[in-house]
Amino acid sequence: MPERLTEMLMDVWTPLIILWITVLPSIYMAPLNQSQILPSGSSMGLSGLSGEQKVLNRSKRGWVWNQMFVLEEFSGPEPILVGRLHTDLDPGSSKIKYILSGDGAGTIFVINDKTGDIHAMKRLDREEKAEYTLTAQAVDGDTNKPLEPPSEFIIKVQDINDNAPEFLDGPYHATVPEMSIVGTFVTKVTATDADDPVYGNSAKLVYSILEGQPYFSIEPHTAIIKTALPNMDREAKEEYFVVIQAKDMGGHMGGLSGTTTVTITLTDVNDNPPKFAQSLYHFSVMEDIALGEPIGRVKANDLDIGENAKSSYDIIEGDGMDIFEITSDVQTQDGIIRLRKPLDFETKKSYTLKVEAANVHIDPRFISGGPFKDTATVKIVVEDADEPPVFSSPTYLLEVHENAAINSVIGQVTAHDPDVSSSPIRFSIDRHTDLERQFNINADDGKITLATPLDRETNTWHNITIVATETRNHSQVSRVPVAIKVLDVNDNAPEFASEHEAFLCENGKPGQVIQTVSAIDKDDPKNGHFFLYSLLPEMVNNPNFTIKKNEGNTLSILAKHSGFSRQKQEVYLLPIIISDSGNPPMSSTSTLTIRVCGCSSDGVVQSCNVEAYVLPIGLSMGALIAILACIILLLVIVVLFVTLRRHKNEPLIIKDEEDVRENIIRYDDEGGGEEDTEAFDIATLQNPDGINGFLPRKDIKPDLQFMPRQGLAPVPNGVDVDEFINVRLHEADNDPTAPPYDSIQIYGYEGRGSVAGSLSSLESSTSDSDQNFDYLSEWGPRFKRLGELYSVGESDKET
């Protein structure tokens, strides 16, 4: 109790003592003693002295001061007296006047020019301005002349506790791991006080917790927040709201305070193991589910979050460890059970698994609280499904000899329905794999038979696909590949590998090898080929050549004698029998052509042709062929030239079915004028049908029968065209059956001396009104009506 009472008295009296210490010196500031007074510069004190004495004696100021003090925020009915200026030159009369200048002079601070008292006229705030620098001077009241030099002094504003602490960075947020030990650092807060930190305790701060106990504590002077309780569990409470107070005056009574909030969040640590939501899971799955498909999901819950909640799943026991697998879903943290191998309802109908979930990241600080894992039992029931047929083998390999008979069985495939119902199976061949339809299959028992002959030399392998279909459900289909290998039989005779032609030198020697040949056989015996060579029986005693068998199934042909001559015999034919070692053996006869040639002394063939003897001096065969080709080319050119000349002289004869009056003959050249009869053929104007007889009208049936007029004799090409046209015109005018009445007769030639002149308007030099159409009545009955119309038109114009 005495200690508590003493502390309370100190809280009350300390501010009062501080106020008394700071205010009294400024109000009752005593004059400085003589030892503190500096020399004065009064002219009156120096007026009776000599010049030498002026140099030796220094003038002394009668008053001086360092600083004055005024309390901030002081207010009252009267201005506060800050201090008094006085000089010993002042005898007490009114002749001396005090002047004040500087910071706030005349506004904030006012001086009594008679007494030198300085008053503060306004409330001062140390936080705005802590001190003021002013200048004081004593002058003569009458003349305003300085009695002393100006002196500078400072008025300091003394601080009082008028500002509360503030947390400029608040509110605060901090984190600390859950399950931390007592004293674990959380964060640090900082408050500021605008009061003077040097003078008194106005800025001395002390921190404390108003809310947040007993979970956290704070250091009073450093403001470091720490944990105060051990094993705080995030899963129980994750966030805490703490209120911090900062109080000045050292935390004593009467001090000002400020508060802030700190939100403290507990971060997660892996202190909880995973736990399955249930201990037993049941799943059912169809037996025909595809590999890798999900069957079901299991879930192990973990109260932790983030990385600490991640779990891995594994199958640790059970009769389906090789059938199923379990993986983790990274998004949901579920365990997904998938199928690894096919299921068969008929073989096994259920499986029991034991799965385990374990944390991926384990905190060693909490390993003693483990184990961080959990187990659960999973039962999987397999349900029956209508499965497709199953072949006895995934692939089949069959062998057949290439000489196998048609419809012979070359193999068999089998399949069954794995379902309990056991549906019958029908077999077929996928014809896309047997386009030539070389094989057939029995739909009931799966026996494969040969449909067409085989040839190993053409195709050694045949790959077909057999299809098995359930008779009760045609959608259940299975396929299996069948490879058929064709085995070889000796059905091909050997023969020369190529068409050989041997060359024999006329100067060859007896026993000389003329040619070495080899044979091939399309068959492929197991022990390889072995060929036998021989001559025909009638040529065994051939006087010219003999044969010799070599290693490697090759044969050499040798000459028995020398002196072969091209003039005597140019080519020799040597038949050779080639036999193989097959069962039964096969043989063939190949003929080797041996040509006699002229060779150099070292045996190089130079010429094998007989013309070297026939034309030793004349031209060669190639030159003769070239000359013959040139002659043939010249003959072709001559024939073409004659044909073109004959075609050019043929007259232009009109076909029988064409009528000259119904055709327009066009020429690209103008010719030599109307007198030129050579520019075209006059025969084009002749009508062969009109010459020979009557040409009936084709557009209408004539009203009366007109006897065919006597045909004219053919007109020679040299006849006058003008006379010819006039004759034709006269016949057309008097023949009522001449086709047609309203048609225009078109001729390619007008003739000479036309009465009407040209009908072209381009050559008319007069207008229509100046023309005389009387000549139309002279053209015959065909133009009579036209002449009357134009005559009427002319009479109308005159009227």
Question: What would you note in describing this structure?
Answer:
The strands form eleven sheets. Strands 33, 35, 38, 39 and 40 form a five-stranded mixed β-sheet that branches. A four-stranded mixed β-sheet has the order 1-7-6-3. A hairpin with a 5-residue loop joins β19 (324-328) and β20 (334-339). The longest helix has 29 residues, at 621-649. With 799 residues, it is α+β, with helices and mostly antiparallel strands. The protein is elongated and about 180 Å long. The chain has seven helices and 40 strands.
Q: Decide which structural class fits the backbone.
A: alpha+beta
Shape: elongated
Q: Which segments are poorly predicted (pLDDT under 50) over 5 or more consecutive residues? A: 1-64, 612-617, 654-662, 687-695, 697-701, 704-713, 762-766
Number of helices: 7
- The radius of gyration is 71 Å
Beta content: 25-35%
Number of strand elements: 40
Give the distance, in angstroms, between the N- and C-terminal Cα atoms. Answer: 163 Å
Range of helix content: 10-25%
Biggest pleated sheet:
5 strands, mixed
Task: Tell me, rounded to a whole number, the average pLDDT.
Answer: 77
